[in-house]
Amino acid sequence: MARIITICNNKGGVGKTTTASNVGVFLSALGKKTLLIDLDPQANATMSLGLDPGDVERGIYHVLTGSVAPREAVKKTHIFGFDIIPSSIDLAAITVELINVKEREYVLEKALKKLSSHYDYIFIDSPPSLDILTVNGFVGAKEIIIPIQCEYFALEGLTQLLSTIDLVSKNLGRKPEFIGALLTMYDRRNKLSREVAKIVRNDFPGYIFDTVIPRNISLAEAPRAKKTILEHAPLSPGAKAYRQLAQELVRRGNTNI
Ligand SMILES: Nc1ncnc2c1ncn2[C@@H]1O[C@H](COP(=O)(O)OP(=O)(O)OP(=O)(O)O)[C@@H](O)[C@H]1O
Ligand SMILES: [Mg+2]
Predict the structure, then answer these.
(1) Does the domain formed by 3-252 have CATH 3.90.780.10?
(2) For the residues 203-225, what does the mean pLDDT come to?
(3) What integer pLDDT is reported at residue 20 of this predicted model?
(4) Is 91 in a helix, a strand, or coil?
(5) 128 pocket-lining for ligand 1 (C-beta < 6 Å)
(6) Which one of 8, 17, 216 would you pick to mutate in the ligand 1 pocket, going by the greatest count of ligand atoms within 8 A of its CB?
């Protein structure tokens, strides 16, 4: 059965999509069969892997509304062992469409049951919100990765998000087995970056990944070239960091830190 990991933070632009696609590709390079689910109507992961969300006829929207079977929505990427279920423009309407659906928080979980035996890892790229899509991600996954940017309000954001996850998991009866926060866009020349990293490690012992993702221009450029960092700049600091994160995930297993 796959390890199912949702990558979430209601704060936008913290590195969720960059993390989901790049850690996934290094896991597939390690020989792990990996699936990325793009659960964000912005479809950034879909586009960065070279698909046009306007052309997607079988994607996560169609799975969540029950019009296609989960296996039918899987697309192979150009990287061996790395598949995607893409987002599409219709996904923006899902919040409204699910309003009258019974057990709407569990729709993704049900779909994942049909996919889990085909993969070693399944990553879910969540939107920057706490809506029904993100909640489906919490419910469907056993593990949660929270990317946090090393900036002034990072601590408050992480505290709030952890209590939201606690509330959601109590109400919906799904307790995550692992929660890890990942420091992203770290700039070691910047004093604030260094201080925030230190405070977060101190205040949340055991919750923070050893791996830190540096601010690295290659990571920002790769999506424009419709490539992952492994293909775009395999020797860059960003590639090195995501390779290390993939190894850390494998090493740590799926129980809480
Ligand atoms: N470590 C990094 N170094 C430099 N740029 C980065 C890094 N990580 C992400 N970026 C860039 O920062 C922007 C935001 O990253 P990303 O899209 O991964 O965040 P996100 O949390 O998924 O955003 P959203 O909340 O909108 O979904 C992107 O332009 C991305 O290329
Ligand atoms: Mg994103």
Answers:
(1) no
(2) 95
(3) 98
(4) helix
(5) yes
(6) 17
